[in-house]
Design goal:
The protein is α/β, with parallel strands linked by helices. 37% of the residues lie in helices and 15% in strands. The chain has 14 helices and 13 strands. A six-stranded parallel beta sheet has the order 8-7-6-9-10-11, with helices on both faces. A five-stranded parallel beta sheet has the order 3-2-1-4-5, with no helix packed on it. Strands 12-13 form a two-stranded antiparallel ribbon. Helix 8 links the parallel strand 6 and strand 7. The longest helix has 14 residues. It is globular.
Length: 367
């Protein structure tokens, strides 16, 4: 292993919520092989919320504390100097994955006389070229870049504390929500990955009217209009609780109490799977082979429209998302039939015929 003898490690965490969750098995193995090392994770909000209070890392920091909001934000010389001074003060003896850091952090790291091991995108895409799925390719990249072997059988797991689960149970009880619960999110990082709101409303009606479920709808800071539209389209149908702008660990705790999650290829999809909740995922311009979670029951409902721009062996945004418009006509996510999604949701909700509070083999706490 290329990291032996390291005692003070800076790990540059992946930027997005889903990307960071896919990194969790690597963090597990890193901690297992270097149990005495001090490991500091440096990432970006909101993704770093996932690791707050997690014992796999000794400290979790966000680039936002230096006023850096995004990966490619330009910064002035005083901030650069502050970052350089911080690195000197911390005396890290190993830097992992600077290629995943914000651009200014990456530049400063490479200028220092520091020991570096990097599992950049090129390392991972060697695995994709060999036909690996996304998670296996990430592990392959770490093997190539760090010299760290991560078990094929390991999957992302978010470790909730008992008080976080208790908080979710109390909140659901206070709101009078009963199981079976399903989680739905219209959240998407691009309009080209977003299924029409009226289709989500149809799925909610299916859950309530045909499966006697109650529905939690999750949304982020930029989803207020969509959430209002969904609420209007489902008014009077049954019990739908809309939850917005929660801390990610609280979202995870609530998702752990649901029998099923329905949404796009997004960070919340990975969040649900990492707490053991089965997922039904709508894929448009991205490929299920790269991003569909493993280690939990997962069903992809993919756009039937063929597209030469949908990458199957490369990470990153599809060309249409980068361009901001569909390159073939009608956005492929819009071609997904809501009847097909409802049928898949019914199948998954009725999959477990025993204890209705059991999901993916994990016993849920009853209200």
């Amino acid at each position: 292993m290329q990291m032996e003898g390291s005692n003070n490690i800076l790990l540059c965490l992946r930027y997005g919520i889903g990307d960071l969750i896919m990194e969790l098995p690597i963090i597990d193995e890193l901690r297992a092989v270097l149990p005495q090392a001090t490991i500091t994770g440096l990432g970006a909000e909101p993704a770093v919320e996932i690791l707050e209070g997690d014992t796999r890392l000794d400290e979790v920091l966000s680039i936002q504390q230096w006023g850096i909001r995004h990966l490619d934000d330009p910064v002035d010389d005083p901030i650069r100097q502050t970052l350089a001074d911080w690195l000197i003060e911390r005396r890290f003896d190993l830097i992992l994955d600077p290629s995943h850091a914000a651009n200014v952090v990456k530049e400063i790291l490479y200028r220092q006389d520091l020991r570096i091991r990097d599992s950049d995108r090129a390392c991972a895409e060697v695995g994709l070229a060999q036909g690996m799925d996304g998670l296996s390719a990430v592990k392959h990249g770490v093997r190539q870049g760090w010299g760290l072997d991560v078990a094929t059988s390991s999957h992302p797991v978010i470790r909730l504390h008992p008080w976080e689960t208790d908080w979710a149970i109390r909140l659901l009880a206070e709101k009078g929500l009963a199981r079976p619960l399903a989680a739905v999110s219209p959240d998407a990082s691009s309009d080209l990955k977003r299924w029409p709101t009226e289709h989500f409303a149809r799925v909610c009606r299916c859950l309530i009217e045909e499966l006697n479920a109650q529905v939690l709808v999750f949304g982020g800071p930029g989803e207020a209009r969509l959430l209002r539209e969904l609420e209007d389209r489902t008014r009077g149908v049954g019990r739908i609780e809309i939850l917005q702008n929660l801390h990610l660990r609280r979202v995870a705790a609530l998702l752990s109490q649901c029998r099923l999650y329905i949404g796009h290829d997004s960070g919340l999809m990975h969040l649900a799977a990492a707490v053991g909740t089965p997922v039904v995922v709508l894929f448009g311009p991205t490929h299920p082979h790269l991003y569909l979670p493993t280690g939990v029951r997962s069903q992809a409902v993919a756009a039937s429209a063929p597209c030469p721009y949908r990458p199957g062996r490369a990470f990153g945004h599809p060309r249409c998302v980068l361009a901001g418009s569909c390159l073939i006509g009608t956005p492929c996510i819009q071609t997904i039939d809501p009847a097909q999604v409802c049928a898949t949701v019914k199948q998954e909700m009725l999959q477990f015929h025993g204890d209705p509070y059991t999901s993916a083999g994990i016993a849920m706490t009853k209200l």
